[in-house]
Predict the 3D structure of the following.
Amino acid sequence: MAPALEIQAVNWCLVFLRVGAFLHVLPFFSSIQFPVVLRVALAAFVALFLGPFLPPLTVDPLSILELVQVMAAEVAIGLVLGFVARMVFYAVDLAGHVVGLETGLQLGSLLDPFQRQTVGPPGLILFLLAAVVMLTLDLHHWMLAGFWRTYSVLPVGTVHLTAGLFEAMVRHTALIFTVALQMAAPVMAVSFVILLVFSLLSRAVPQMNVFAESFAFRIAGGLLVFALTLHLTAQYVFNYLHRLPDDLLIMARLLQGQ
């Protein structure tokens, strides 16, 4: 039997890998503005204080190949859980892209300071709104608490790939489009109504350029509705993040094969 200290070091390393992979995908912590060294230090700190509160980890002395397999499995678990936690931000990005296309603001791209890539103004506004909702309502702590609960159903070295896991991942991915459509639906509806009105006007005035004449109204109407429905968008983000700890626990059960 390996010494107890050596087993504890191996267990800490495995917890560190899952936490590090989770933070690597999680919003803000995966940002380019967030230093890699600080993210690694945070993962080590969380693993250090998370380990004593976890259920007893039954990791017997393993060969090098078996240990590498367990380490790869822990990284995969962290990435899957982080992907589920980040999905609401994917939905926000998609909703912002749709709103930008409907209002014509997608052409005036801005630099996203978190990812260092150009996005439309609506997309950046919605991303910052989701970030504010998550941080001000302390939902990031709930997210970490949900991650800690996954160890109660998915201890180290017990991951199994099942058909239910892939079905759940497909459902969560499809949910991105559903949530994004709910966020962008008011602006899409107003844009459609404006186009419909100008299409009817063009029947009376055939010389009218429907696209050019309706563009200013689509921008004004889209921005007005976008501003008036930001509180609804924040509610969608809150509802998704509020049930996120339970979603993480469900994914952990599926990874465990239950």
Observations:
- Strands lie at 110-112, 117-119.
